[in-house]
Design brief:
CATH topology of the largest domain: Jelly Rolls
Number of domains: 2
Mean pLDDT: 78
CATH architecture of the largest domain: Sandwich
Helix content: under 10%
Distance between the termini: 16 Å
Shape: globular
Pfam family, one: DiatomPyrShell
Number of helices: 2
Largest sheet: 9 strands, antiparallel
CATH class of the largest domain: Mainly Beta
Structural class: mainly beta
Keywords: Signal
Number of strands: 17
Order of helices and strands: HEEEEEEEEEHEEEEEEEE
InterPro entries: DiatomPyrShell
Radius of gyration: 18 Å
Length: about 270
Amino acid sequence: WIPTATGFAAMLLSLLGAPWLAPGPSSARLASPAAMQLQGGSLRTWHSPDPWAEEGGFFLGTEGRPMDANVELWSGPDNTAFRMRVYGENGNLRPVRGTVGMRGRHPRSNAIAVRNAGPLEFPMSDVGVFGGGAEQPSKQCLESASTVQGGSLRTYPVGPYVDAVQVLLRSDGLPVNATIEIVQGPNTNRQGIELYTDDGRERPIFYILETPGYGSVVEVRNTGPLEFPIAASVVPHSVGMADESFGGGGYGRGGYGGGGGGGYGGGGGG
């Protein structure tokens, strides 16, 4: 997730080594997703032994019941650098995979906390926080970004053969306040994410979201003020069936809805 080639290569080398996260007081060591159950109302934390860690990944899912969870990145004492809430009607059909940047100018003690905000009857069966093998945006995702001004909404129709999409939100260093919703059919919200990150350059947020069925639309809304624009990318991640039109028209290299975008580290431009 680092704009320079050297930083990106170094990140890959570090990820190929040992797992990123060490166990916290109430957690188990995880090197891969889908490894733990989290009961309704409970909280688990994972701590990084590396103060220079540049990213952390997470996976959230259920066995088919509704999902309502909060994820926070604690960076130093009394500092929540990133937080999000995800909710959906089916955590098995629509799990959430995400990666949040943790790069900073100074070494910090980082921890990721996951809370199941649902009732006791709705446990989360698949919860993982990890570094090795964390999801990364594709080249298409990095190169296709469109500016979403504060208070505005941008929609991205999803093709019928697209099983999952990549969503990347970043800025030129300003805070990011945004919501992501997957709508399928008239006024039918299948999944929603509310997120905040204090620095969209150092801590961009990347998701892989499932889009089963037909007629899905990804809606990205910048809930911040007009002075805080963000750069959003939404592109296909996996395709279930061959589609001759895929790659042309609205699904070209520029991603859904076009958009110029620039290098990874920038805001809406280069």
